[in-house]
Here is the input.
Amino acid sequence: MWDALQFDFIRNALLAGILVSISCGIVGSLVVVNRIVFISGGIAHAAYGGIGLAFFTGISPTLGAGLFSIAVSMIMAAVSFKNRHRADTFIGVIWAVGMALGIILIDMTPGYNVDLISYLFGSILAVPESDIFFMVPLDIIIVLSVVILYKELLAMSYDEEFAFIAGIPVRLLYFSLLGMTALCVVMVIRVVGLILVIALLTIPPYIAEKYTGSLGKMMALACLLGILFTVSGLWLSFNYNLTSGATIVMVAAVAFFISQAFEMIKKRYKA
Here is the structure.
């Protein structure tokens, strides 16, 4: 792997993986503790409509996916804010409509000749420098937003009623959280694709939650786990000629099942 670092595309892939892992570790922790994984999945899959719109209008796919994802996230936030557990039908509809819209717009695009697999399953080895320059400010925005709003996000995540009573703008925070999720999704698309985005967004935080006692520590450990999974998956895919996005997710999945097995053994031992 060290020899491979002489190639620009490998260095770009590693840097992209690290940047994505940081955003996924932070935003994913909030997604997990707020139990909005299904909403995040809806945003991720609906983003395909933005990709189709981008190709149809001739703009950057990353920009198209970003703007479309943010718009969809605001719609989902408005629908699910008051009753998150009963909004699953509407979210499922938006999920399907976004995918269908993307496919139809791509079909209508004149002279279209782009590999759709890279958007569905990721193509971290093909991440250009322009995308790196796009990921860095998004990471900075996400990190600064969480640092500034950490206490408010903590209150909303663990005791929403208390947050309301304390005068915290829970509605605005909830919309902001889904907006950050949309930005994170756009970054992850380039690494593991739309189909696998939820795995990288939720597996590291889920594992981290078991071994930490605070939201901040959970975020930090989730970031480190995400980097470990991404680098390990990238190394395996490079050495064994495997699809990089799927390999990264499989590494994360193995870690997930090992963690589950360890928890079961620990419970039996305590009993």
